[in-house]
Amino acid sequence: MTDRRSLELWARAQEVIPGGVNSPVRAMAAVGQNPPFIKSGRGAYIEDVDGNRYLDYVGSWGPLILGHAHPEVVKAVQRAAEKGTSFGAPTEAEVLFAEKLVKLVPSLEMVRLVSSGTEATMSALRLARGYTGRDLIVKFDGCYHGHSDGLLVSAGSGLATLGLPACPGVPEAIAGATLSLPYNDLESLASAFASHDGQIAAVIVEPVAGNMGVVEPKPGFLAGLRQLCDQHGALLIFDEVITGFRVALGGAQERFGVLPDLTTLGKIVGGGLPLAAYGGRREIMQRVAPCGPVYQAGTLSGNPLATAAGLMVLELLQAPRVYETLEESSARLYDGLGQILAAKGLPHCGQRVGAMFTYFFTAGPVTDYASAKTSDTALFARFHRGMLKRGIYLAPSQFEATLVCLAHGPQEIDAALAAAEETVKEF
Ligand code: HOZ
Predict the structure, then answer these.
(1) 239 is an active site residue
(2) Which residues contact 377 (CB under 8 A, 6 or more apart)?
(3) 144 has catalytic annotation
(4) CATH topology for 4-57+321-424?
(5) pLDDT per position as a tens digit, 250-297
(6) Cα dihedral angle (183, 364, 34, 426), rounded to 10 degrees?
(7) Between 260 and which of 77, 236, 403, 408 could a Cys-Cys bridge form, CB atoms 3.0 to 4.6 Å apart?
(8) Do 386 and 418 meet the contact criterion of CB atoms below 8 Å apart?
(9) Going by C-beta distance under 8 Å and a sequence separation of 6 or more, which residues neighbour residue 194?
(10) Rounded to two decimals, what is the model's pTM?
(11) Residues 144, 183, 278, 369: which is the catalytic one?
(12) For domain 71-316, which architecture applies?
């Protein structure tokens, strides 16, 4: 599938960039494919440097809920750029943006803007530790919260894709301050609280896991986390970098009706530019410097291009029927794919929440990382290659999500289903 110009760039990239990519999963190694180099995108489609056009179901791994190069977003960024690209000083757009976030995301009373999801989760953990005066953090196996040291323990996303259980370079003292437990398992959390009484600062969770493939929280799981955190004086952090503005306008916390103490946001919130955020209860956020002693800073934080893009995207997401449309398109694609896999008798187990889903190539059920890992990744890779050959660009890993956006109309859904029909015929 990869043509001459992409192959040429791929060879050059590997000489000067580790693995040829600036983020590991992009290398497409897990699906035995060389990555096409992308030149442009519009709506639901991207084009590579050889002129191949693909129907994109990755959407830059989540940010592009409106599709590529949405005209209103492009205009907003252009308007901002004309006035200057960075000031390192307060701007009106930051205030408007923070006000908008506080209005839309149920648990946010104050918010701090940063530049990446990794920075948001890392900062939220420091704040949780500073606020509680405790050191330990609980995360869940297969959840991925960016690449800061303490969070690369039993992590999903690229680490799951590459089969890396831990990361050299993370000091034992730091990894040892993170307890990783099975997702959807409240009993393990209760035991962890019992055996580390008064030492756990926070529990951080993807309220819908998206980085071991999509795994839904079992009914009562999120409410149970809330209750256990309250009982033991720990903070609950929802990592809504993927779910924020995707599974509902107010994220998973709105959809499931459970409010965390702190929330991290990324991807959609930045409208396709490098912007992320963390926020939560006023009393906690007031511990952040210069209000309080917990230090965190950034030259490009609240960057005017990124706030312009983010503000425009959030405005457009407030239009009527946006989330109904996303739900309908996503359900149509998900149901259709399920029928195709079933008709062919392929082992599969799907999970969908709003505009994010995964078909695991295993009979399932999949409820956590251990069960997600029973998937036949070779079968997934074959499916991926078949789809790519037919112009459908899916996340190149069994342990990532298919992300539906507003640019996926009936024609795009039908095209993906037709490609899937053709692909499985070869199996
Ligand atoms: N962390 C992203 C997957 N969940 C990958 C980001 C990228 O490679 O661009």
Answers:
(1) yes
(2) 30, 361, 398
(3) yes
(4) Aspartate Aminotransferase, domain 1 (3.90.1150)
(5) 999 999 999 999 999 999 999 999 999 999 999 999 999 999 999 999
(6) -170
(7) 236
(8) no
(9) none
(10) 0.97
(11) 144
(12) 3-Layer(aba) Sandwich (3.40)
